[in-house]
Write a structure and sequence with these properties.
This protein is mostly helical and 433 residues long. Helices cover 68% and strands 2% of the residues. It has helices at 2-10, 12-32, 37-51, 57-76, 82-108, 117-130, 151-170, 178-198, 228-250, 253-263, 265-270, 275-301, 311-324, 329-359, 371-389, 404-420, and strands at 212-213, 219-220, 223-224, 303-304. It has a two-stranded antiparallel ribbon. The termini are far apart.
Length: 433
């Protein structure tokens, strides 16, 4: 078995053949069948297989782009379950972007945040308030609702507002660490939710527990985005930007500063890392990604209320990061996608299948153990199994490899160049000017 793995790892043509066969079989199955969860999962698994190939990063990005932009939308469009597939893929993209944002705070900087969904809510309410007539209730004039064409601008406005509140959160908690930081951020998330729930008096800004409805969908050159397959491409575009940004941050100077703070704050300060600015940047950047997806969520659902931004959502996003592998970008992507697909499709379809067998009399399941009630139990058991057998995450973080020989050659070349240059001695009896 080990020899087979080594042979596959060294043979890129064999890897390409296996990947092409998997994509063809799964794509044709999804396209020709009315609905097949297994075939759809195999099609998505081709992206995971692509990650483990020995292709260059450029080739992986090109193949992944073709899969995500062309093959997956085309394959899922063949049957009546098209919008169902696209809904799962869109929700997965939204949660992946939020998990990558939280990974900056938790995985890179080591700051435990249990109120991350608050930034998601800030982005959603930023667009929801001004894209409906709700803004007319506390602002003079009759300029609202704004048209759906402003959605593209509000993606950046929502990210900016979330980043601003992320910095405001970071200021009072700079001296707090560990469990106390988790308590403070948990309180911040609950405070934001309660404020949105009660901010209808004395001035009605958020419409309280009733929520905001009739939010304008995105509009581009007169074309409204109202279906999941249309939002899918919006989410993919933002997600590509988020992944590119996170990868650039990871190995940049600020990324190394985040990791230094995570390992030892005192040592990082002694090496010249500005502790306050580094932490605030982590909170701001991570929050901005969540705020951008909050705008997309509000436009997609066309209705938001405080019940969508509870503590359970923050815990779920944190579980995605921990399960995937803290600090690992591909691991967080896999963890977020896995949990989203489990919740939205796999466990739901499994529960529906057991219900049908019960109604047909094939099996008899007691009411107390009905699939609808046991769904969360099964989900929790799966998470425990992953945590036991993969304690470092599904794809653990890998530090960048350093070529020690190259560094030694550079050091030796510099030392020889400095020793070869002899100092110029002043002439005897003269004055050096």
């Amino acid at each position: 078995m080990d020899k087979i793995k080594q042979a596959l790892a060294q043979n890129s043509k064999m890897q390409a053949l296996i990947l092409v066969l998997l994509v063809l079989v799964s794509a044709l199955s999804v396209y020709m069948m009315a609905k097949s969860v297994i075939a759809f999962l195999l099609l998505l698994a081709s992206l995971l297989l692509l990650h483990y190939t020995s292709f260059t990063d450029k080739v992986k990005w090109i193949i992944g782009g073709i899969l995500v932009i062309l093959i997956i939308p085309f394959a899922t469009s063949g049957g009546p379950a098209y919008e169902s597939y696209m809904e799962v893929a869109t929700q997965s993209g939204i949660y992946i972007a939020m998990a990558l944002g939280l990974n900056i705070v938790v995985g890179f900087a080591g700051l435990l945040d249990l109120g991350f969904v608050a930034f998601f809510a800030i982005g959603a309410y930023t667009y929801g308030i001004f894209s409906t007539a709700q803004a007319n209730k506390f602002l003079t004039g009759d300029f609202f609702p704004l048209s759906g064409s402003t959605f593209w601008l509000f993606i950046f406005i929502g990210g900016f507002m979330a980043a601003l509140f992320g910095m405001l959160l970071g200021l009072p908690v700079l001296r707090v660490k560990g469990d106390y930081l988790a308590i403070v951020t948990l309180g911040f998330g609950e405070i934001v939710r309660i404020i949105f729930n009660n901010l209808e008096k004395p001035i009605n800004i958020t419409n309280g527990a009733k929520g905001i409805s009739s939010i304008k969908p995105p509009d581009l050159f007169g074309l409204e985005f109202t279906h999941p397959h249309e939002f899918y491409f919006i989410v993919i575009a933002i997600l590509a930007f988020v992944i590119f940004g996170v990868k650039r941050f990871e190995h940049s100077r600020i990324g190394r500063s985040w990791k230094a703070v995570r390992e030892n704050e005192i040592a990082a300060q002694s090496m010249g890392v500005p502790l306050i600015r580094t932490k605030l940047t982590a909170f701001a950047v991570g929050a901005s990604f969540s705020g951008m997806m909050g705008v997309v969520f509000a436009a997609k659902q066309t209705f938001i209320d405080p019940s969508s931004f509870t503590l359970l959502e923050s815990i779920t996003i944190l579980v995605m990061v921990v399960l995937g592998g803290m600090g690992s970008v591909p691991g967080v992507i896999l963890g977020a996608a896995l949990i989203t697909i489990l919740n939205l499709q796999v466990l739901t379809e499994f529960a529906n299948w057991l219900n049908q067998l019960t109604l047909q009399g094939v099996v008899h399941i007691p009411f107390a153990l009905s699939p609808a009630k046991m769904q969360r139990f099964i989900f929790g058991a799966i998470l425990i199994l992953f945590a036991v057998f993969r304690p470092n995450g599904l794809i653990s973080v890998k530090n960048r490899k350093v070529n020690e020989r190259l560094i030694q050659e550079r050091v030796s070349s510099k030392s020889t160049s400095t020793t070869s240059v002899k100092p110029i001695s002043p002439p005897s009896g003269g004055i050096v000017q």
